[in-house]
């Protein structure tokens, strides 16, 4: 009896600390001005340079003018990320030969650790960019599974978490 009262008390205390028990589905992000610099859809992608696991520099702005699009997928090398990356490998990449796909490792902490994760997970056929200080992850508001598509004009077309791949297909099919 004592335990159930404590549990009820803790539950009430927890619920009382919630800001909103009836959240809306309203998007509270600021409106996007198309063509402005930023990381949301319809904004001009913010440029960055990272090194890949083979110690090559990758600068975003030099990539998208020579390809139909650039796809960035933020990975933690976990089973969920593996299933997303494997899905891209099996079903997406082959349908879009003029799109460059890059995996962004923001968890390994060094180029050598990232290269080891890339090899041990079997993704040596993809370029893996190393975000050792989380700068690009933070800049783009990315987390595990965030997928960003940037078109040939440098405009962000998609910046959201990978779900089932349909949004990625839809986004790439209209480029």
Summarize the SSE layout with pairings.
Elements lengths: L1 H15 L20 E2 L5 E2 L3 E4 L4 E3 H4 L5 E7 L3 H14 L6 E7 L5 H10 L6 E4 L4 H5 L6 E6 L4 E6 L4 H8 L2
Parallel strand pairs: 1-2, 5-6, 6-7
Antiparallel strand pairs: 3-4, 3-7, 5-8, 8-9
Provide the spatial order of strands within the biggest beta sheet: 4-3-7-6-5-8-9
- Tell me the number of helical segments per DSSP (H or I, 4 or more residues long): 6
Integer-rounded radius of gyration: 20 Å
Overall geometry comes to globular
Helix percent band: 25-40%
Q: Mean pLDDT across all residues, rounded?
A: 89
CATH homologous superfamily identity of the domain at 54-175: Glutaredoxin
Protein architecture, described:
The structure is a single chain. By secondary structure, the chain is of the alpha/beta class. The protein has a domain at 54-175: Glutaredoxin. It contains six helices and nine strands. It has helices at residues 2-16, 60-63, 79-92, 111-120, 135-139, 166-173; strands at 37-38, 44-45, 49-52, 57-59, 69-75, 99-105, 127-130, 146-151, 156-161. It has a seven-stranded mixed β-sheet. The longest helix is centred in the first third of the chain and has 15 residues, at 2-16. The N and C termini lie far apart (63 Å). The model has no long low-confidence stretch (mean pLDDT 89).
